[in-house]
Amino acid sequence: MPKASETVLEIDLKALEHNYRYLRSRLNPETKFLAVVKAFAYGSDAVAIAKKLEHLEVDYFAVAYVKEGVALRDAGIQTPILVLHPQAANFEELIERCLEPSLYAPKILREFLDVAKKMEQKNYPVHVKFNTGLNRLGFWENDIDHIQEKIKGRTEIKIMSIFSHLAASDDLEEKEFTHNQIDAFEKIALVFDKKIDHTPFKHLLNTSGIINYPQAQFDMVRSGIGLYGFGNEAEIDAELKPVATLKTIISQIHNIEPDETVGYNRAFVSDGYRVTATLPLGHADGIGRQYGNGKAYVIVNGQKAPIIGNVCMDMIMIDITNITCIEGDEVIVFGENPNAEQFASAANTISYELLTGISQRVKRSILGM
Fold first, then answer.
1. Which long-range contacts (CB under 8 A, 24 or more apart) does 212-217 make?
2. Is 291 part of the annotated catalytic residue set?
3. What is residue 235's predicted lDDT score, i.e. its pLDDT?
4. Does residue 235 form part of some domain?
C-alpha cells in the first residue's frame, strides 16, 4: 500500500471481495445476499463499495435512510435497495428513485399506501418488518390480521419480503433467546403466507447470524460489518480482511522535559525526558477523547506509540520516546494491526462505532479498483 502524505482512510476493494466471497461460501448456493451499505458503507465510501459489490452480483443493498439510497441511485447503482428506516416525509422521493421501503408499523404502512395511491403506483415493492425481540422497529405477530385488512383489495403495493432482526446473534450465551427469535419468525412466516395471495421471501440473519445460525438463512441474509472485515469473534476475524485502514503522518516532534505537560488541561505530565509527536487528526475526525490519556496506541515504524493527553479537535499527541522517526513519517491508526476492533476496545467501544464515526473530511483513497 502507498505511504500516506496526509490523513487518509484507505478502502481496499480486494479485501471487500475476499470478505464477500468468504461469507458467501458459508451459505447455501440459492440463498440471496443483501449487502448493508448504510452510514457511508460503515464509514468507508458507499458508492465505491456498492459498485464493487454490484459487480460481484449481490442481490440487494440496504441503507438506513432515503437520502443514502438516493446517493447510490445518483451514482448509477441499479441493484434493488431496501431502506430500513424510511420516514413518511421522504416517501415521494423514495418512489421516484425506485427505492424499496421497510414498513414496520401501522402508521408507516398507512402513510405509504396513501402516497403510493397518490402517485398512482401498482405493485410497488415493499418489505414488512416484524419485531421478534429486539424491540426497536417492527410489527408484532398479532398485527398480521391488521396488515392483511389494510392491503386487502389494494393494488398499490406488493410485499416482496418479510424480515426481522436478531438481537444477540454474536453472543453464544444468548443462544436460547436467539433460537426463540428464530422460532418466532418461522411462526410469523407460516401465518403470513396463509394470509396473503403470494409468498414473499424471508430474511433474518445478520453477519453473526450467518456465522452462528446458518440453519436460519431462509431466502436471504443481510451482512454489514462482516463485509468490512469483522465477524464479532476472533476466529472469524482471522478469516476476514479489514477493508479500511486509517493513516496519518507526524506533523511535528517535541522534546519534553520532566514535569512538562502536553495538551489541553495539562492532562499529560511527563515523568522524565520524553519525545512526543503531533498528528493531524482528532475528535472532529472520529478519534474521540476516549482514546486519549494512554488508552489507545498507534503504530509508528512498526512500534506502538500511545496517545497521550487529551485528544484535541484536530490533533492528537503520541509518545514516540525510543522510536526512530522523523516529521512526515507515516502513522497507522488502525488497519490490520491494530485493527478497528482492537483499537475501539481500548476505549470500551466497538468497531461499528469507530468505523462509522470517521469524519467525511478525512480523505478516502480507493485501492484495488
1. 212/169, 212/170, 212/172, 212/178, 213/166, 213/169, 213/178, 213/182, 214/26, 214/27, 216/182, 216/185, 217/27, 217/28, 217/31
2. no
3. 87
4. no
